[in-house]
Write a structure and sequence with these properties.
Layout (H helix, E strand, L loop, with lengths): L18 E10 L2 E10 L5 E5 L6 H8 L7 E6 L2 E2 L5 H6 L2 E3 L12 H8 L14 H14 L14 H14 L4 E5 L7 H16 L3 E5 L3 H7 L2 E6 L2 E6 L1 H5 L2 H8 L2
Parallel strand pairs: 3-8, 3-9, 6-7, 7-8
Antiparallel strand pairs: 1-2, 1-4, 4-5, 9-10
Helix pairs in contact: 3-5, 4-5
The structure holds adenosine-5'-diphosphate and magnesium ion (MG).
């Protein structure tokens, strides 16, 4: 718990809780995917959100990033109320995200994909030419991802892991301070998982906050400062990786006891 200090304005020095939700709820028909979630994540840290399949992690991301409107509850980021704001407004507030199933345009080149991601409303504005500075910036992020040699390749010709890196390059084009990654290692080969882990560490050392949904426990435990566990749409445990490892409720949730 973080002491219950009320948040005021946009205080960048808030010790905790960069991203906070209160009573966040979203149901689909009879299924309450996110069930009254009150949680806060650590600014400047690598946070993980774990839990069994269907526990509401992706829905939580979708509500936080404005893809889905909550039935009730609030989302605030550094004291700003972002509840139910449009995705491009949330991006402008400094939050970027990747998708579980990766969102790239398969028949567009790698470079064009990154440039498209920089457009606040997606494809609009593509084809009208990009400024030199923007193209340089896209090349910079492709280089950081280690896929700059693929800039002229069509995205569909990249491996799955390379597509994840491409998507991350696109996310970084909007200069997010908080980055939400939905299963960054899912389906990715071990060498590229290490690359993604190193990138998260580097980007975090440069001041970016992460919130990562991931099933690879070894990766989660080695990367994270703070772990939140969901079960059936609710947080059931939170703490350091060591605390989470030792928590029987977490094991029970995974075993379906
Ligand atoms: N668009 C949707 N329509 C109906 N049910 C959904 C939808 N999205 C998610 N759900 C349901 O909500 C629950 C949580 O799903 P999800 O957020 O994808 O979980 P996770 O990412 O933790 O696996 C599941 O029972 C899922 O079937
Ligand atoms: Mg999911």
């Amino acid at each position: 718990m973080n002491g219950g200090t009320p948040m005021s304005g946009r205080d960048a020095k808030q010790p905790e809780g960069s991203l906070q939700t209160s009573g966040l709820t979203k149901s689909f028909g009879g299924v309450t995917a996110v069930d009254g979630v009150t949680v806060s994540f650590r600014q400047g840290k690598v946070n993980a959100l774990i839990g069994p399949n269907g526990s509401g992690k992706t829905t939580f991301f979708n509500v936080v990033t404005g893809m889905i409107k909550p039935d009730s509850g609030t989302v605030t980021y550094r004291g700003r109320n972002l509840t139910a704001k449009a995705p491009h407004r949330i991006a402008r507030a400094g939050i970027g995200r990747s998708f579980q199933l990766c969102r790239v345009f398969p028949r567009m080149t790698v470079l064009d994909n990154v440039l498209a991601a920089a457009q606040p409303k997606g494809l609009k504005g593509l084809g009208s030419g990009h400024g030199k500075a923007e193209t340089e910036k896209a090349r910079y992020w492709l280089t950081r991802m280690g896929i700059e040699h693929l800039e002229h390749a069509e995205a569909r010709n990249l491996s799955w892991g390379q597509q994840k890196l491409l998507e991350l390059a696109g996310v970084l084009m909007t200069e997010p301070e908080l980055i939400l990654l939905d299963e960054p290692a899912g389906g990715v080969n071990p060498a590229l998982i290490d690359r993604i882990a190193d990138l998260v560490r580097e980007l975090n050392a440069e001041g970016r906050t992460f919130l990562i949904v991931e099933h690879n426990m070894e990766l989660v435990m080695s990367l994270s400062d703070h772990v939140v566990v969901f079960d059936r749409g609710r947080p059931i445990a939170e703490g350091t990786p060591d605390v989470i490892r030792a928590d029987e409720r977490v094991l029970e949730a995974y075993l379906g006891v």
